[in-house]
Write a structure and sequence with these properties.
CATH class: Alpha Beta
Bound molecules: 2-phosphoglycolic acid
CATH architecture: Alpha-Beta Barrel
Number of strands: 8
Strand content: 5-15%
Number of domains: 1
Number of helices: 10
Radius of gyration: 17 Å
Helix content: 40-55%
CATH superfamily: Aldolase class I
Strand order of the largest sheet: 1-2-3-4-5-6-7-8
Order of helices and strands: EHEHEHEHHEHHEHEHEH
Largest sheet: 8 strands, parallel, barrel
CATH topology: TIM Barrel
Shape: globular
Mean pLDDT: 97
Length: about 250
């Protein structure tokens, strides 16, 4: 079945990478992507902020996009240690992940904060990848769908469209654990997210919904074939060019 939305395979390197290794990884992804010549999917890498500029340079003319992992809501000012969306854009980024569960947990980011960051991304000309996902406790309490709905409604700014936002569903308990929901569970969560999006915006059908959480070469084809899954947000498995490219190939 032909896809109506172009899959996006995004690598979230998290707090990993010093210059030499990161550039080797970036070049590996760039070479593989260029060789594959994909016009039917997009490949994105999100290195730590310290490496965004160097990675953007390393992947130039390969078709690989570069993104940040977080941004501040403000464009500049007295926010020691923070990085604005404008700064990411200035370094060559086109996307930024906002509301990753590690940010929500480690930095107490609420839906309102995530929403402000997504708006900041727009202000700077970046596409935000807005992350949502339930914890194990919420899942076991049967609250998965309601949690996703609340997070979506709180985190997605008004004015979201198919081209200016990407949503990533990442069950918190699946991140870095090797555990994943079953394919029907992923499909059900994505179908629910799309229903909720339908109530929030007029052109929701084109919004890409990524699945994230322990995606690897061996399970990518199955997860990516689940209904309403338009790509993946990949953590650990994005740190090896060959494995990340294999996931992109599976899309
Ligand atoms: P993982 O991380 O692939 O290592 O589970 C995914 C993510 O946190 O985006």
């Amino acid at each position: 079945m032909a896809r109506t939305r172009r899959p996006l395979i995004a690598g979230n390197w998290k707090m990993n990478g010093l210059t030499a290794d990161a550039l080797a990884l970036a070049k590996g992804v760039a070479n593989g992507t260029k060789q594959a010549g994909w016009s039917d999917r997009e490949v994105l890498v999100c290195p730590p902020a310290t490496l965004v500029a160097a990675v953007a340079e390393a992947v130039k003319a390969s078709g690989v996009f570069v993104g940040g992992q977080d941004c501040h809501a403000k464009s500049n000012g007295a926010h020691t240690g923070d990085i604005s969306a404008e700064m990411l854009r200035d370094c060559g980024a086109s996307h930024v992940i906002v509301g990753h569960s590690e940010r929500r947990t480690d930095h107490g980011e609420t839906d309102a904060v995530v929403r402000a960051k997504a708006e900041a991304a727009w202000r700077a000309g970046l596409v935000p990848i807005v992350c949502i996902g339930e914890t194990l406790t919420e899942r076991e309490a049967g609250k998965t769908l309601s949690v996703l709905e609340t997070q979506l409604k709180g985190s997605l700014p008004g004015g979201s469209t198919a081209t200016n936002v990407v949503v990533a569903y990442e069950p918190v308990w699946a991140i870095g654990t090797g555990k994943t929901p079953t394919t029907p569970e992923v499909a059900a969560a994505h179908a629910h997210i799309r229903r909720v999006l339908g109530g929030l915006m007029s052109e929701s059908a084109g919004v890409r919904l990524l699945y994230g959480g322990s995606v690897k070469e061996s399970n990518a084809a199955e997860l990516l074939a689940a209904g309403d899954v338009d790509g993946a947000l990949v953590g650990g498995a994005s740190l090896k060019a060959s494995e990340f490219l294999a996931i992109a190939k599976a899309a």
